[in-house]
Amino acid sequence: MSKVWFITGSSRGLGRHFAEAALARGDQVAATARNPDDLGELVAAHGEAVLPLALDVTGRAAVFESVRRARERFGRLDVIVNNAGYAQVGAVEELTEQDLRDQLETNLFGAVWVIQAVLPYLREQGAGHIIQLSSAAGLIAMPLSGAYSASKWALEALNESLAQEVADFGVKVTVIEPGGFATRSGQNPDPLNNGHLTEPDPIYDGLRRRIAAFAGKQPAGDPAAAARALLKIVDSGDPPLRVLFGQGFYPMLQQVYADRLKTWADWQDLSAQAHGDPTRSERTDRSEP
After folding, report:
1. What is the CA radius of gyration of the chain?
2. What is the Cα–Cα distance from 65 to 68, expressed in whole angstroms?
């Protein structure tokens, strides 16, 4: 059976490739973008199979209205792709209050509004699949990614809880964790020019250059290949809760998680001390004056 998709951030990048892959195989797509004119080529190529919607995901009422229109147009919703987002790059010390609030409003709250809007329909259907775009930065935090990683780490926790809450309703949840993908210039994102701050502090320029050099050495993934992989996930009868897209960060993730386990193990004695001795506490409470 063909599927009905609701995809945020469909104007470019991975979201655009996801929409094109779904449409190419005969599915229908409610494609959202802040500027619906950016969806003109999709509509021209696929006609009535596309519902272009103007949407800024930070507006809760607008999200609910867009979801309602998509459900009204197609009669059901099968695959929900929370893709809209951006990367705020900068040291924690540099972040303004507005920098951080804007990052969370889009990446975190925007995803929450979509989830809350679609769940009544998916629950009524007894089926549906929510796809959340996270990032390798949702699993490990690197310098200059504090705001971005905070938003993605929050999404990881939110969707892990969500998956357990909605499983009994027949709704599935998958968190996609991409590494770098060549969504614009054929290169990975450049920390020097992607997600700028209002007034970057020159004391972090050396760090910015080192991170840029590291990012430039990571293999950039093919967005079209990522879209084909996503089709396999949404067609699976038993999709994963989490899946990495791309290979560049996998060895780093293995080391990071091994280091975390080792650190917790190395400090177990102190952990026990912090817990205290409940037997001793009980004796003290019951002792006579």
Report:
1. 22
2. 5
- pLDDT value at residue 197: 63
pLDDT average, residue stretch 143-150: 95
Q: Give pTM, 2 decimals.
A: 0.89
From the candidates 145, 148, 149, 172, give the one annotated as an active-site residue: 148
Each residue's pLDDT tens digit, 167-192: 999 999 999 999 866 454 333 444 44
Would you state the structure tokens that stand for residue 62, as one six-digit string?
A: 């607008």
Q: Is residue 148 flagged as an active site residue?
A: yes
| Catalytic residue from among 134, 135, 145, 151 | 134
The domain limits of the chain are 4-248
Helix (H, G, I), strand (E, B) or coil at 245: strand
Q: Looking at the predicted structure, is the pLDDT value of residue 155 above 80?
A: yes
Q: What is the pLDDT of residue 192?
A: 42
Distance CA 77, CA 30 (A): 9
List the catalytic residue out of 11, 135, 152, 172.
152
Please check whether the domain covering 4-248 is classified as CATH 1.10.10.10: no
- In the residue annotation, 232 being an active-site residue is answered as no
